[in-house]
């Protein structure tokens, strides 16, 4: 005698359960950690509406100037912090990545709820899918997600990775990128001047398959600093094709496009700063002198050594190089965007070009502002150099424990009843 078919209601319940599983199947690269060290990282963020520069910065509790410089936007424009950025604009958001509960994440962002907010609207719209509603609920111990008090302050846990600040033994900063419906792994690799293999290694992927909502760690070539640990800007790293302002807005450090050597000089925002002249020299920060000789090229430079106890540290160095360096190349800056084209994206600068040749004389910046000339240029066995082989794993976004157990229990009971 054949068994009766399960009721239609149970069959529908099964499909509903499987549908729920599908909704939470987006993956995010998780980096385990065991120390208190932090690093600089970036988020790929798409504006959900028109917002001022200062409003975007406030959304992530970062300095508006750091937001602009991370995206190679010219800060010399009048009242640039109140410039309105268009909806759907893609930005790179600089954040500090910490070790929290054994994994890398950023917990510095706080959000104050508004009357129309829900956990889903906060996660999917306001924070552009960088966090899930369940992650916000768990981080804030919210028992009833349907009830949010207006003005309630929520901690927003955001994804990030460090991987020792390297990729294939070269300096890198990692961007947490939310996959769009139109994305392919090959397209993402091309946009960020990397390879499919590198992305697969970094994210511990077994195939090139990705889906909308996945969060990938994308390595961006960068210029790393070597400041002492007691420096206020210890660990400064600047993505290729952009710049950063440091030392209380007194020093501007840029990366590329000619190489991956950090170049620092007085900033355009400098108002009241300590001396930037190298001791026992008439060279100022950023100045370089070159002298061709039969043995090679004698290069003397005044470099930035960090911001220590309110003092800008400068270092005078002399070296004999096979050839003289060319004039310093600066990242190409863009005007603050006012419109956005379909599928537009701010991609990192192209791979570094070889340096030019020089002869003799002094190489010095002609202006304290980076020149603005137009548009922005362009398993784990083989994990990023310096990282532990088990550090990167492509994991499903964690659901809160109680709902997960409940769903699994209901599913088990449903399956038994259908036998």
UniProtKB/TrEMBL annotation:
The keyword Signal applies. Keywords: Signal. SMART domains: LysM. Residues 109-156, 175-218 form the LysM domain. The keyword Signal applies. Residues 345-371 are annotated as: Disordered. Residues 1-26 form the signal peptide. It holds the Pfam family LysM. Residues 356-371 have a biased composition (Polar residues). InterPro entries: LysM, LysM_dom_sf. This is LysM domain. It comes from Dillenia turbinata.
């Amino acid at each position: 005698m054949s068994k009766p078919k399960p009721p239609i209601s149970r069959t529908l319940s099964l499909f509903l359960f499987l549908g729920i599983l599908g909704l939470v199947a987006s993956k995010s690269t998780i980096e385990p950690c065991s120390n208190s060290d932090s690093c600089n990282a970036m988020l790929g963020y798409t504006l959900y509406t028109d917002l001022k520069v200062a409003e975007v910065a406030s959304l992530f509790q970062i300095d508006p100037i750091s937001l602009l410089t991370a995206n190679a936007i010219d800060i010399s424009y009048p009242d640039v912090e109140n410039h309105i950025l268009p909806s759907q604009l893609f930005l790179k958001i600089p954040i500090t990545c910490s070790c929290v509960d054994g994994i890398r994440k950023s917990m510095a962002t706080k959000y104050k709820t508004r009357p129309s907010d829900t956990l889903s609207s906060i996660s999917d719209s306001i924070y552009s899918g960088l966090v899930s509603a369940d992650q916000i609920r768990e981080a804030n111990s919210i028992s009833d997600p349907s009830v949010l008090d207006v003005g309630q302050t929520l901690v927003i846990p955001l994804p990030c990775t460090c991987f020792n600040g390297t990729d294939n033994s070269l300096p890198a900063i990692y961007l947490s990128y939310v996959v769009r419906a139109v994305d392919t792994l090959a397209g993402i690799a091309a946009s960020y001047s990397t390879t499919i293999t590198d992305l697969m290694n970094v994210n511990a992927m077994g195939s090139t398959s990705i889906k909308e909502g996945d969060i990938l760690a994308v390595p961006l070539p960068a210029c790393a600093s070597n400041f002492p640990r007691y420096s206020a800007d210890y660990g400064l790293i600047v993505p290729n094709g952009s710049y950063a302002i440091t030392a209380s807005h007194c020093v501007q450090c840029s990366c590329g496009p000619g190489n991956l050597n950090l170049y620092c000089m007085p900033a355009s925002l400098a108002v009241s700063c300590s001396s930037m002249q190298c001791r026992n020299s008439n060279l100022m920060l950023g100045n370089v002198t070159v002298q061709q000789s039969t043995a090679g090229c004698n290069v003397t430079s005044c470099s930035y050594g960090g911001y220590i106890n309110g003092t800008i540290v400068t270092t005078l160095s002399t070296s004999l190089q096979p050839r003289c360096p060319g004039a310093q190349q600066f990242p190409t800056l863009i005007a603050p965007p006012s419109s956005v084209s379909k599928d537009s994206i701010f991609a990192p600068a192209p791979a570094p070009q070889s340096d030019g040749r020089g002869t003799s004389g002094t190489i010095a910046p002609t202006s304290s502002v980076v020149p603005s000339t137009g548009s922005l240029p362009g398993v784990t066995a083989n994990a990023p150099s310096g990282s532990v082989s088990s550090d990167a794993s492509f994991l499903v976004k964690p659901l809160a424990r109680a709902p997960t157990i409940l769903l699994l229990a209901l599913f088990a009971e449903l399956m038994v009843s259908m036998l």
